[in-house]
Amino acid sequence: MPTDPVALTAALIRCASVTPAEGGALVLLQDLLQAAGFSCTRVDRNGTANLFARWGARGARRSFGFNGHTDVVPVGDIAAWTHDPFGAAVEGDWMYGRGATDMKSGVAAFAAAAIDFVRETPPDGAVILAITGDEEGDATDGTVALLDWMAAEGEGMTHCLVGEPTCPDTMGQMMKIGRRGSMTAWFTAHGVQGHSAYPHRAKNPMRALATLLSRLPDTLDAGTTHFDPSTLQITTIDCGNPANNVIPAKGSATVNIRFNDSHSGASLSDWLLSEAARVQAETGVTITTRLQISGESFLTPPGALSALIARAVQAETGITPDLSTSGGTSDARFIRAHCPVVEFGLVGRSMHQVDERVSITQIMQLKSIYSRILKDYFA
């Protein structure tokens, strides 16, 4: 009997795996995959649960990998939900629950496709699932831990598909062949407190911050062949000053940058530090800067892997997906150093929202797409 991805999605939703809690989701997957002949290993690190599952021989000539996550974001205001966020309630064609779209349905669709595939058509090669419980968290001990373990154990993927939701509005609409980089800068300006009527006796950190921020444009370039323009957004400006007649001693501001392949985290860091140093020299206000690079931009150039996935999507949906690099970061940013990687998954309109939901029809479509990808890859 074919493996039902809808029932598996429901079972995973009922696991309250709010990051970093495992919630039983990986235990459920491991039991299911082991029963189908997959060799499974828990690759937990620093309290984060991860699962590596392989059907076929280690070091096979061809190893098709799938990466996904079973951890979910918090539910938020539970009173705002019309269905139990961990109940997997079904209403018409919709299944409700936290993680329904992002991305327990994607994990369920690939697991179901992989189990049926190796049972019906044992491939000349290996099928690998690398499932993490840390994608929605800091992402330091999730897919990174799996890749570190794989390198140490001589495990490898020839190609990898990440099952994140990629379609904006219509099933089959879009696949991701890369992602912009992401970084955050925290600026702290250290001035001298004083009375606002006597500004010559103070050094206003807020004026220095305003000057610095005015020199950081919203758009950094015109975009590149496969990427939208790089953007910089001011996300907060703070000083915690309750008085309207006091110049504060310290102020802070945060900016987030999403950048394309015309920049690197290092080049943008140098630019930000240079601009902060200029303002410091001009104002006499000391500015300290803390930088965090969450991921570099990357691209899997259009080729055999993207064409394989596009053909499968077109065959099952009648739509040829756009090749995109839009959106935020994903764990593909870690996998790209291991092997070629492409992302394809469901419509993601309700992910992270109250009453997150997934179309049952689309879960079945996604399993069919993933099944076709496996069959064509090993043909």
Structural commentary:
Helices cover 31% and strands 24% of the residues. The chain is of the alpha+beta class. It folds into two domains: 5-179 and 297-377, 3-Layer(aba) Sandwich (Aminopeptidase); 181-295, Alpha-Beta Plaits (2-Layer Sandwich), CATH 3.30.70. The strands form six sheets. The chain has a six-stranded mixed β-sheet, with helices on both faces. The chain has a four-stranded antiparallel β-sheet with strand order 12-14-10-15. Strands 4-5-19 form a three-stranded antiparallel β-sheet. Strand 1 and strand 2 (50-55) form a beta hairpin. Helix 5 (205-214) packs across helix 6 and helix 7 (304-317) packs across helix 9. The protein is elongated and about 80 Å long. The two termini are 23 Å apart. The model has no long low-confidence stretch (mean pLDDT 97).
